[in-house]
Amino acid sequence: MTKSIHVICLDCSHATEFTLSGTACPNCGSEWREARYDYRSIARSFLDAVSSRPFDLWRYEELLPIHTPMPDLTLGSGGTPLLRAANLGMMLGNQRIYIKDERQGPTGSFKDRQAALTIAALKEAGVTELVVASTGNVAIAYSALAARSGIKCWAFLNSQVPAEKMREVALYGTQVIKVTGTYDQAKKVAAEFAAQRGFYLDRGTRSIPSVEAMKTIAFESAEQLTRALTESSANGSSGAPLRAPDWYIQAVSGGLGPVGVIKGFEELHEMGLIDRVPKYAIVQAEGCSPMVQAWKQNSRTAVPIASPNSIISTLATGDPGRAYTLIYDALARGRGGTFESVTDEEAFRALHVTAKMEGLSIELATGVGFAGLVKLVRAGVIESDEVVLVNCTGHTMSVEPAVLGKHWAQSVEFPAQPETDPREEGLLSALRSVTQDRFPHILVVDDTPEARRLIVRILQSQGNFTITEAENGREALEIAKNDPPDLVVLDLMMPEMDGFTLLDRFEDEPALADVPVIVVTAKELTSKEKARLKGRIQSLMQKGSFMDDDLFEEIRSLVD
Asked: What is the pLDDT of residue 11?
């Protein structure tokens, strides 16, 4: 049966059949349109149909704007893992934080979905040349898929794109055009070039295949969350067969990802497959946050930022255009959400914490999303029992310069922009110095292995400490006698010898009597128990409510 795919103009509601070449509404000329399907008919057999298919992008072919899926051509895009953030969750006091690991795509980012579906649509339409403007990941994804499909790709990259990403784009045979200017200027040059040559131009959020590809993140996540929450007996949903998260979090540049994901969850809701859509947290780098600024002013229109001031070049889209309005309207008609910004320093810190606590090596742009998660949990916007889904959008890759040789890129020069405020360069300037002249010995005492692991990872993410672990007070006392620590991080409720008794024994040992102690406990202390600790410890922290910053600052104040 032939699939029925319509596009609806978002300005005049005029409906037409979808064609790749039809980039504007024939009635009013608007380029802002949306794909629509026969949702009622598809819903009847959707879950049964997809359950027998491979877990990849093409699993949801009924809701994609293509007649012939091409899984072999597209390198297996989609079907990325969903990971529970056990350690971050413990640190943040929320055990229902999940990570959609889009690093596992063919070229290491969620843009692989966009490239896979668009390239398949181009092949189906007989298109042979493609033009993209990119801050890195889009160009890499399109270049790989274009090479595999025999399509010529032209990539316009602004000069702030890391050289490693430019080299990877060129490695696939794409013609790289370096634009000395902003990303928004690179998009303008790319559009003019495509128009002159008559080539297909990737138009981001205005491109039907691009948006439709991103919604598969919502489809996959709903399936994966349903399994994960059912297995943990924490589903808590109504009678709908699938489960959406309470929050979806993503760092953004132009906003294509959230626009697609929002559409995906809304389609699932329209088909009755989820009982509600999520709240959305859209996170931007503070030095380039036009969406956040507009949100704070309660405006549906974002004012462009002419000169982004962030070292996170892959998020430096100064003009999000109508994408912001689409997301703004979705928050208004759904369950709500927020826009938030984080500093480059916060993003860099989140990158390190995520790597050292969850084993995920993420690019700096992804660090913005995780920094937003931390900020929103700290502020109480995200509650401890809510199910949170964070899009881990990408993993940085590099190509050695010698692989390509010389003359692998052409350049387009733009007039110099007005001077902006001077700032330090390089990622190291964004990281607060935690280097210490000496490496203190810290003894971590807790009978719960997971709690010890969390504290140890927090410490390891901050400095070169010598760390010893003990699972009860008796073991800790023997360790401390043989090798007195510079600091003790102590739980109170333990078998054999609890924390109160260990403090008593420390006072009986001259070498240990003055060792500083931080108590980290899940126990709600009585007034009598608090009195037993008074004057004997430096700090009392509650498990599940302290953050790594809090613990480390307390430690540093004691051992520096």
From this structure: 97
| Listed residue (147, 125, 21, 113) closest to 67, CA to CA | 125
In the chain, which stretches have pLDDT less than 50? 1, 420-438
Determine the Cα–Cα distance for residues 560 and 556; give it in Å rounded to an integer: 6
Q: What is the DSSP string of 57-101?
A: GGGGGGGSS-SS--TTTTTT-----EEE-HHHHHHHT-TTEEEEE
The pLDDT assigned to 450 comes to 81
**Bridge partners, residue 539, by sequence:** 518
| Best CA proximity match to 445, nearest among 479, 465, 469 | 469
Cα(41)–Cα(39) distance, integer angstroms: 5
The predicted pLDDT at position 423 comes to 39
* Helical (H) or strand (E) element with 457: helix 449-460
Please report the pLDDT score of residue 560 as a whole number.
Answer: 60
CA gap 459, 393 in Å, rounded: 26
β-partners of residue 154 are 131, 175
Give every strand in the sheet of 15-17, ordered side by side: 15-17, 6-9, 33-36
pLDDT tens profile 199-234: 999 999 999 999 999 999 999 999 999 999 987 765
Q: Cα(first)–Cα(last) distance of the chain, in Å?
A: 72
Phi/psi zone of residue 191: left (φ > 0), alpha (ψ -120 to 50 degrees), beta? alpha
Q: Which of these, 275, 300, 283, 384, lies nearest to 339 by C-alpha position?
A: 283
Beta strands 517-521; 15-17: pairing state: unpaired
Q: What are phi and psi of 365, to 5 degrees?
A: -60, -40
Tell me the one-letter amino acid at 326.
Answer: L
Amino acid identity, residue 369?
G
Q: Which residues contact 375 (CB under 8 A, 6 or more apart)?
A: 340, 342, 346
pLDDT of residue 125: 94
CB of 114 closer than 8 Å to CB of 145: no
The confidence score (pLDDT) of residue 434 equals 28
Enter the tokens of residue 481. 């006698």
